[in-house]
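In practice, a research group might receive sequence data for several interacting partners and want a quick structural hypothesis before committing to experiments. The following worked case mirrors that situation: the sequences arrive first, and a predicted assembly follows.
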Amino acid sequence: MSEIALEGVTKVFDDGYEAVKDMNLDIGDGEFMILVGPSGCGKSTALRMIAGLEDITSGELKIDGEEVNDRSPKDRDIAMVFQNYALYPHMTVRENMGFALKLAGVDKAEIDQKVEEAARTLDLEQHLDRRPANLSGGQRQRVAMGRAIVRNPKAFLMDEPLSNLDAKLRVQMRTEVARIQSDLETTTVYVTHDQTEAMTLGDRVAVMRAGVLQQVGTPEELYDRPRNLFVAGFIGSPAMNFMPGEISGARLKLPIGEVEVSQLSGGGDGQVVVGLRPENIEDATIVGDDLKQQRGVEFEAEIDLVESLGSDLYAYFHIESEGVESELLADLVGESLSETGAGGLREGQERVVARLDPTSKVRRRQKAQLWADTAKLHLFDPESGERLG
Amino acid sequence: MATTAPTHPQPPEAAPEHASSRTRSERKLAWMLCAPAVIVMLLVTAYPIGYSIVLSLQKLDLRFPDQTEFTGLSNYGTVLSSELWWTDVFNTVFIVLISVAIELVLGMAIAMVMNRAIFGRGVVRTSVLIPYGIITVVAAFAWQFAFASDSGFVNHLPFVSEEFNWFGGRFSSFAIIIAAEVWKTTPFMALLLLAGLVTIDNQLYEAAKVDGASAWQRFTKITLPLMKPAILVALLFRTLEGFRVFDSIFIMTRGALETESISILGFNQLISRLNLGLGSTVSVLLFLIVVLVSAFFIKVLGVKVEEGRPGG
Amino acid sequence: MKQDRPKDYAFWSIAITLVLVFALVPVLWLLSISLKPPEQIADGRVIPETFSLDNYKSLFEGGFDESPFLHPLVNSIVIALITTVIAITLAAFTAYAIARLEFPGKRLILAGALAIAMFPPISTVGPLFDMWRAFGIYDTYPGLIIPYLTFSLPLAIYVLTAFFREIPWDLEQAAQVDGATPFQAFTKVIMPLAAPGVFTAAILVFIFCWNDFVFAISLTSSNSSRTVPAALAFFTGESTFTEPTGSIAAAAILVTIPIIVFVLIFQRRIVSGLTAGAVKG
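A structural hypothesis for the assembly, expressed as C-alpha cells:
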C-alpha cells in the first residue's frame, strides 16, 4: 500500500520518439487509478516506467515519497500483470505463483501457505499442479493475477490484463479485479484502451493522448465536465456527437436550432464546437411538455437507421453542417487533417446518433421529432479543443 | 442437393467417389514429385547399407579376389575382439564427448551474443559463419600448422615451451583435433541454440525481473529450462555427426599414435587395404552405433526432432 | 528496453571481439603462412617478415594438367554446381509436394531424410567403392555427384519445405482471380516468394559439396576428378623432404575466399536456412 507520484516524467526513446511528455500524476494509497487512451498514447510506457522496465528520461518517480528512478524492478516491491500474462510455461501454476517468493528466500512452508490462499481467492485450487499450456485463457489470467497477489506488494501494475479475454469473460473478470482490489486495498495502476473498463473500475481515471495527460478525475468528472474535445469524445459510449455552432451575443446557433447561452468564459462571438451526448437526445413525443418548456430544443430529422437493443434504441440521423476544422476531432474520428481536408466535421452532412427510450416509435426513413437537452451541451474552442464554460 | 422431396435416394456413391478421385490424383502427383529425390536417397543409402551387410559377412579382400568366401559372422568376431577396434571406439567417444561439451557452452555463449548484443549482430553472424563455411580439411590444416613444431606460432607464445611437440603425444594431439572440431562446428551449434533462444517470449524475462530474479537466475531458471528441446536437438545432431569424425584426424595425424577414430579405421580397411570384408564390418558396426545413439536420444531423452522449439 | 549505458557498450564490445577472435584467428594464421616465402615458413612469426606470393604462384605452375591445384579446383567447382542444380530441382519438387499436397508418407519422407543426414558416410563408402568400380564410374564426376546428391538432399528438402510452408499459397488463387493464368500466377507471384528459400538451399548444398572429404578421397584416385579437399591431402612440397605447408596454405586461402564472399553477402539467408532446416519454423 503506497503512494506513487510521477513528477514531470518524460520518456524519449533512442530514436527520438517522445512517448510520454512531462507527466504529473499523484496516486494515493490504496487508490485504483486507470490510465486510458488510444493505442500509442503512452499509457503502457508510463506503466513500465513505474515498474522499472523502462528508464525515465527526465522527471522523478516517487514511491512513498522516495525517488526510485534508478531502482531495479525487484527493489521497488511492485507486482505486474502483463497483457499476455507472461506465465512461465515450464512451471506449474503453483511454481509460477511462488516464483518471486522463492527468489526472495521465503521458506517453503510460508510460500505454500500464501500460494494456497491466493489460489482460494481466485478459485484456482484444483489447477495448482497444472501447466499454463493446459489452462484456458481465463484461468491463465487468474494465475497471472495470483502471481501478483501472492507477493503482497506495495502496488499492482496491470497492463491491459483483460484484453485477451472474450467479451463475456472480460465483464466477469472485471468485477473480480474490482473485488480483489477493494479487499486487498492495494494501490493499483491499471492500463486499458477500453473506456468502459476505465469508467467502471477506476477510483480515478487518467486520460492520455500522444504522451500527454489530458485529464485526471473521477469517472463522473470526466463524463460531466470533460476538459477538452478529446476527452469528451473518448469517454462515453456511444461517443459524444459533435456539431458546429456559432455564438453571437447571447445566442448559440446550432444546426438543430438556437439556444440562449448565459455563461461563457473567454471567447465571445465566433465558432465553437458543440458536443451533445446521444443520451441527451430524446424522442420529442415522449418528453414531458413542462420539460420542453423549461429548456431544450426541438427539431425534425429524417432517421437513417434504427438499432433496437431492447433496453435502448439507437437512432442515426444526419444534420446539415457547415463543418468545423479541428485537429483534435480528426484524431478522434481517426483521420488526419491532410486526408480529409477539413478534419473532424466535414462540410455537408454530419451523422448524429441519439439514444432514445425503447418505447419510441421512430422508424427508418421517416421524419421524427427529436428533442435535445441543451442544458447538457458541452462547448469547445475549435482551435485549442479546450472546454468553454 | 435437390430441394424437391426425393422419390428415391440420391446416389450417394457419386459424391465420395468424386472426392476421392481428386484426392487420389493429388496423391499420385505428390508421389511423382517426391519419387526422384527419394530414389536417389535410397540408392546411395539403403542399397549400400544392405550391400555392406552382405560384404561384412564375407571374407573379401580385393587384393586376393579369388579367396572370397562367405564366412558368416566371423568378421564381427574379429573386429569386436580386436584391441584396435576398442581403442578406436574409445577415441571416438572421447573426442565426441569433449567436443560436444565444449561446443555446448561456447555455442550457448555465442548464441546469447547473437541474440542480445546491442550492436554488431551482423558482424558477429558473419564472422561466426566463416568456421562453418570453411572446408573441414582447410580448418584441420590451419590448426595443424599453428601447432606444428616447424611452422607453428603457438610454441612461440609466452608460457608455452618452444620444444613441445604437440603432435608427438596422444593426448596433446587429441587436444588439437578437438580444438579444430570445436572451432569448426560451434557455429552450427550456436545457430541451433539461437533458433531456440529467439522463441522465448521477452515478457517472461520482464516478469522474472519484476519477480526479483537476477541476470544469472533468469538464465538458469528461465532460459535454460525453456531451451531444453533446442539443446537436445542440437546435442543429437552434433553427437551423431561427431561419431563420423574423420577429416581432422586424417589431416593431422592420419590416426597415428592411437588417435584413430572408427571412420578412419573403416577407411584404412576399405580403401587402403582393400579388405572389403573387414572394412564393411566396421562400417556396419558404426552404423549400428549411430542408430543406437539416435534411439537413445529420441526414446529416452524424448527429443522431438521436428520441433526444436521450447514450449510449455 | 532499458537505455544503454556506456558500460553496456564496453561489455558487448569485449564479447564481440572475443567472438571475432575465435572465428578468425585460424584463418588469419593460414593467410599469414601463405604469404611467407618458403624459407620463412618455419620462423613461427605471426606476421610474415617479408611478404611473398611464391606459394600462390606454385599452385598454378604446370598449367592445367600438371599443377596440383588447378584441375582439382575446376573439379570442385563443376561437381558442386552440377550437384546443386540437380539437388535443388529434386528437393524443390519434393518440398512442394510436402508443403502443399496431402498424401500419406509425408512424415516418413521427412523422417527418412533426417535419418539419411545422420548416416556416417564411411558406412556407404565400401560398397560404393566396389559398385563404382563395377559400373566404371570410379574416379569420375558422376561417381562423386551421386553420393553428394544423396547426402545433400535431406538438407535441401528440409530447408525448402520450411520455406515453402511459409508461402501464402492463396496468393496464387488471388492472382488468378485478378486475371493471371496459372503459369503467370506461379511465375509472377509464387516464384519471387520462393526464390530466397531456393537460393538459401542452393548455398547450403554448394557448401556441403565444396566441403566433402570422405567421398573425395575414397572414390577418386587421380586429379581427373579429385576435388580440392582431397587434393590438399596429397600435395607435395618443393622436394620430397619439405612439407608443402606454404602451398597448402595458399590453396586453402584460395578456396576459402569464395566462402567468405558467400557468407558476407548471404549471411542472413544462410542463418535463416540453417535454423529453418533444423528446427520446424
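Before designing any experiment, note the following. Chain A touches chain B through 25 residues (CB under 8 Å). The first strand of chain A starts at residue 4 and ends at 12.
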